[in-house]
From TrEMBL:
It is a multi-pass membrane protein. Gene3D superfamilies: 1.10.287.70, G protein-activated inward rectifier potassium channel 1. The lineage of its organism: Eukaryota, Metazoa, Chordata, Craniata, Vertebrata. Keywords: Ion channel, Ion transport, Membrane, Potassium, Potassium transport, Transmembrane, Transmembrane helix, Transport, Voltage-gated channel. InterPro entries: Ig_E-set (IPR014756), IRK_C (IPR041647), K_chnl_inward-rec_Kir (IPR016449), K_chnl_inward-rec_Kir3.1 (IPR003274), K_chnl_inward-rec_Kir_cyto (IPR013518), Kir_TM (IPR040445). The keyword Transport applies. GO terms for molecular function: G-protein activated inward rectifier potassium channel activity. GO terms for cellular component: monoatomic ion channel complex; plasma membrane. This is G protein-activated inward rectifier potassium channel 1. GO terms for biological process: potassium ion import across plasma membrane; regulation of monoatomic ion transmembrane transport. Residues 8-148 form the Potassium channel inwardly rectifying transmembrane domain. It comes from Chroicocephalus maculipennis. Residues 155-320 form the Inward rectifier potassium channel C-terminal domain. Belongs to the inward rectifier-type potassium channel (TC 1.A.2.1) family. KCNJ3 subfamily.
């Protein structure tokens, strides 16, 4: 079958784009900090470089303008004359003075004299503006670097989900694992069934979302994710798959979105990993191969068998049947 469009990719990226915002696009500017954090790295670096470059050139031009209006440029080498900023006689020297002041380097060759009130005011303005720009841009870069998105890449989901019997009940199952030794604190898993449907009143609901119970009532959705776990959804009368059989699975169109959330132990930040399974990725009558083995004093996880399944005898009928 031709691969159809997913709502959520296997890597967790949501295939949703917002368009025709009109006047609502101004909301992005009202929350400029979050907008910058959400941008891609290449745009963040470009804005970072351009902001500092423009700010440096503008402030250096202001220092050069003060020296030009006071006539300091023409009398810079006159020892009897007291300029606004000593040893500023062209734009490069004004730029160097600004950099020395902004970076608090203080070589001592260029300095503000007490007979220049406009220079003192500009110095105060430069200090305040520099602190604001540093706090905004450096804070933005720090938040972006500390985002736990890369941690989600070390949370693993099985490529396919399986349907088979467990404890005499027909269940939909998939597997999750953590590739790192550091744990996910308070890990919780949720599942959403995304399927278009029509209400009895004739209203068509595209991409309607329905909750799949993976142990919310029993606490099984709270995971101790030290080793790979098999998440189980019991198909019963309350399940959306109550009428699903092996034959009807071939003609169904649905998508199961899996959301795994937890707190990264090393950073204390909340991390979310997502994946999805379409009807073509649900294997009827299969079970996952074991990946745990007991070694000398520890348990070993073989991730080469993480996605592997094998066939087991499973009735081809739905729970309703």
């Amino acid at each position: 079958r031709r691969e159809r469009q997913r709502f959520v990719d296997k890597n967790g990226r949501c295939n949703v784009q917002h368009g025709n915002l009109g006047g609502e696009s101004s909301r992005y500017l009202s929350d400029l900090f979050t907008t910058l954090v959400d941008l891609k790295w290449r745009w963040n670096l470009l804005i970072f470089l351009l902001t500092y470059t423009v700010a440096w050139l503008v402030m250096a031009s202001m220092w050069w303008g003060i020296a030009y209006l006071r006539g300091d440029l023409h009398r810079a080498h006159d020892d009897a004359y007291s300029p606004c900023v000593a040893n500023v006689y062209n734009f490069p020297s004004a730029f160097l003075f600004f950099i020395e002041t902004e970076a608090t380097i203080g070589y001592g060759h260029r300095y503000i004299t007490e007979r220049c009130p406009e220079g003192i005011v500009l110095f105060l303005f430069q200090s305040l503006l520099g602190s604001i720009v540093d706090a905004f841009l450096i804070g933005c870069m720090f938040i972006k670097m500390s985002q736990p998105k890369k941690r989600a890449e070390t949370l693993m989901f099985s490529r396919a989900a399986v349907v088979s019997q467990r404890d005499g009940k027909l269940c939909l199952m998939f597997r999750v694992g953590n590739l790192r030794n550091s744990h996910m604190v308070s890990a919780q898993i949720r599942c959403k069934l995304i399927k278009s449907r029509q209400t009895p009143e004739g209203e068509f609901l595209p991409l309607d979302q329905c909750e799949l119970d993976v142990g919310f009532g029993t606490g099984a959705d709270q995971l101790f994710l030290v080793s790979p776990l098999t998440i189980c959804h019991e198909i019963n009368s309350k399940s959306p798959f109550f009428c699903l059989s092996q034959r009807s699975l071939r003609s169904e169109q649905f998508e199961i979105v899996v959301i795994l959330e937890g707190i990264v132990e090393t950073t204390g930040m909340t991390c979310q990993a997502r994946t999805s399974y379409t009807e073509d990725e649900v294997l009827w009558g299969h079970r996952f191969l074991p990946v745990m083995s007991l070694e000398d004093g520890f348990f070993r996880v073989d991730y080469s068998q993480f996605h592997a399944t094998f066939e087991v005898p499973t009735p081809p009928y739905s729970v309703k049947e």
